[in-house]
Structure formats: C-alpha cells, structure tokens
Design goal:
Length: about 450
C-alpha cells in the first residue's frame, strides 16, 4: 500500500477516535446529551464531506472531459488515483493518435492505392492514390460499400469468393484506361486492406513485347519461305533451269537474304540503343556535320540510283556534340525512307540549319506520296507501316523511325513530322541549342562543296 494512502486513512481514523474520546469525556464529566450531540455533529460533518466528494465524482463520471475534482482526506487519494488514470489514458490516446497519423501519412505517401474496409466491405479510409484510381472522395464516401463505387463484375466475384491468394487484374472503363493489379489482405477482426497498383504501362510493354515477337516472326517468315523454297527446288534437281532463270532465282534469293540481313542489323541497332546505360550516349564528342552530310549525300545518291534527285541546303556550317555513329544512323534512316517512298523523278531535299531559337535542325523533305494525318502519331512504333505491301517492296524493315526516335531521345532531341497526302513529307530532327558547336572554316568549305555537288 502507498505510504501516503496509509497516512490518509490513519488521519481519518484518528479524527474518529478523537471525536469518540471527546464524547466519552463529556459523558463522564459533563452532560451526556452534550456527548451525544457532539457525536452527531461529528458524524454529520464527516457524512457531508463524503457526500460532497461523491457528488463531485458523479459529476465527473457524467462528463469525464472535465478536470478531476479535488478532494480532502480519503477522497484526496481517490481523486489523485483517478487523475493518474486519466493522464495515463490521455497519453495512451495521444500515442495511438500519433500512430494513426503516422500510418495515414505513410499511406498517403505510398504510390499504391490503399483502402481500409470493414467486415461488410464498407470504406473506413483510403489514401489519395486510391481516391484517384476509384474516383472516391473519402470525406463523402466513408461508410459506403466499395461495391457501390467499383462497379466491375470481376471485382464483385473476387470479393464474393474470398480467395485472395492471387491478385486481380482489373481494367477500368474510364477515359484514362487504367489497368490495376488489386489484392485484398484480411487483418484484425474482419477488416481488410484493399491494395491497388497501376500496371497500365507494364501491360502496354507486355503487349508491345508480344507484338514485337509476332512482327519479327512475320517479317522473317516471308524471306525464309522464299529462300527455303528455292533451295528445296534446286536441291531436288527435278526442275532444270537455264542460266537466265537461275540468275533470276539467285537474284531473288539474294534480295530476300539482304532483307533479312537489314532486319537483323536494325534489330541489333535498336537493341543496342535500348540497352545502353543512361539516357544519353556514352561516347559523345564534337561531330563534324560537314563530313557527315557529305556521307549522307553520297549514300543517298547511291540508293536513289538516278531515280530521284538528291539536294542539300546548308546555308551555314556548325557542328553538334553527340554520338556520330548514332546520329549518322538516325539521319541515314530519314534519308533512306524519303528515297524509298518518293516517286521516280522526284526530289529529296536535305537541309541543315540553325533555328532562330538556336536549335539545330536536320530535315529531309520529299515530294512523294505523303502520309495521312491519322498515321503520323504512330510512325515511330516498331513495324508500324502505313502501306504494308509498299513497305516490303521498297525494302524497309519497319524499324527505321523507331531507331530515329531512340537516337533523338538520347540526344534530348525531337522529331517533327509534317506531311500532306499526294504532296510529300518533311521529317525534321531538332537538336537542343546546348549541343550546337561552331564549325571550323575548313568544315565550312567542305559543306559548300557538298552543296554544290
């Protein structure tokens, strides 16, 4: 027992003993009625004190938010004990509130959606990410059934079955086309955590991977079928061919082999770009654009073989900082695409200039068949073709513009496409001003020579 508590009780007992002793003395030496009166007065005083303390205790019990009343005597110890209990309870509540606040702060910071559900799948709380995923307003929708807000049959079946070992992949039908991976984790007494993660981009990548494998298989199947068929015919020896037909067959086999080789080379180039560490090229240096433009002109004229006229417009010469190999691959793809999709007798114009904003622009314009506006946004996708038959006939692999996109992205550059069906197209690679370097006078002379030629 607390020593202070013992002292309080002892003091109360002493007071009662003193009153009894005084009553006995009065009875012995004075009038007995005085003794009885003294005892009654003492008892009434003690009872009044206790009744007052009990009244204060009852008032506090009806409204514990008020302060614990003060007391004297025995009640001082009682109220002191109550005060200690109240303070301990307050500290416990404050600690619990702090834990809840930390939990909600952690839930708010999470990149995944978190919804707390009760036994009847009513919403207790959700974080901002879950509000965005499911279009929920916590202030208004708390207490609502999650089934009323996430209207998807597969989600309802998932909840009904109660088998939460595997996550649910849910495609929301709203405008942004979200794909969510959802999982329910039971905890506590009939409570659940509904966790949701945005896997839209992952799903897109998976679809692209499947399409990529299918497209590569399709692109390789045709030339392999042609080469295999001819080889089988020739190995059987059943069909005899003269020199002219043999040469024609060998030429077709060579064309298909070259097509496969171009496809494999483009795939290797694209794979190297995508697997390169970091968002920028690692072998950057000053690229002599005059020499690079001269190479592009020579290879463009060789590819055109006189069917189109190749021109270069280079009013001033300046270099860029970057990867010469990657820039040559990107610019070369733009030139070869323009030649392949231009009509015989047309003109392909190459230009290299500085924009008023200080950016560098390499552009390739043709007067060919042009591209309908609905296709422009998808031109840099792998194997995307506006006209499949024409693309294969021209020798394209369907990866050229995908390579261009990756190279320009690694150089913080952009691709601007303008095209009008029946009038031609213009593809412009725009490099940031911070990559521009003033060229030496000798390079200026080389550029002027390439322009004149």
């Amino acid at each position: 027992m607390n020593p202070n508590s013992t002292y309080v009780w002892l003091r109360t007992i002493v007071a009662l003993v003193v009153i009894a002793a005084l009553a006995l003395l009065l009875q012995a030496f004075f009038d007995p009625e005085w003794a009885l009166g003294l005892v009654c007065v003492g008892i009434i005083a003690i009872l009044t004190h206790h009744l007052s303390s009990i009244s204060g205790l009852l008032r506090w019990l009806r409204d514990p938010s008020k302060s614990v009343p003060d007391g004297r005597g025995v009640w001082e110890e009682v109220f002191s004990g109550l005060y200690r209990l109240v303070r301990a309870n307050q500290r416990q509540q404050e600690a619990l509130s702090a834990e809840v606040a930390r939990f909600r702060m952690a839930g708010t910071a999470m990149p995944d959606g978190v919804v707390i559900l009760d036994a009847e799948n009513h919403i207790d709380w959700c974080n901002p990410m879950a509000e965005r995923f499911f279009d929920i307003d916590t202030a208004k929708d708390a207490g609502q059934s999650i089934m009323n807000l996430v209207r998807a049959p597969e989600f309802a079946l998932y909840l009904e079955r109660g088998n939460f070992a595997e996550p649910l992949l849910l495609r929301l039908m709203r405008g942004e086309g979200l794909v969510l991976s959802m999982r329910i984790i039971p905890y506590g007494k009939d409570q659940k955590l509904l966790l949701s993660r945005d896997v839209t981009q992952t799903e897109k990548v998976e679809v692209m991977r499947r399409d990529f494998v299918a497209n590569v298989s399709h692109e390789l199947k045709t030339p392999l079928t042609v080469v295999s068929g001819f080889l089988e015919t020739m190995s059987d020896g059943v069909v005899t061919m003269d020199k002219a037909r043999t040469a024609r067959v060998m030429g077709m086999m060579q064309d298909q082999t070259d097509r496969m080789l171009r496809l494999v080379n483009d795939l290797l180039t694209l794979s190297a770009l995508e697997s390169s560490p970091g968002p920028a090229p690692g072998n950057e240096h000053q690229v002599a654009m005059a020499a690079l433009l001269s190479r592009l002109m020579d290879e463009g004229r060789a590819l055109a073989a006189g069917r189109q006229q190749i021109e270069l417009d280079c009013p001033e010469t300046f270099d860029v900082t970057g990867s010469e190999k990657e820039l040559y691959s990107a610019f070369g793809n733009l030139v070869s695409n323009a030649i392949r999709y231009s009509q015989e007798g047309g003109t392909v114009r190459l230009s290299w200039r500085r924009r008023p904003s200080g950016e560098g622009e390499f552009a390739v314009a043709d007067d060919g068949i042009g591209i309908d506006s609905q296709h422009i946004a998808r031109l840099t996708e792998r194997f995307y073709r506006v006209d499949h038959s024409r693309s294969r006939d021209s020798g394209g692999t369907g990866l050229g513009l995908a390579i261009v996109k990756h190279v320009l992205s690694r150089h913080q550059a952009t691709l601007d496409i303008q095209s009008t069906p029946g009038q031609g197209s213009r593809f412009a690679a725009i490099l940031p001003a911070r990559r521009i370097v003033v060229a030496a006078p000798s390079d200026q002379a080389l550029a002027e020579k390439a322009t004149r030629s």
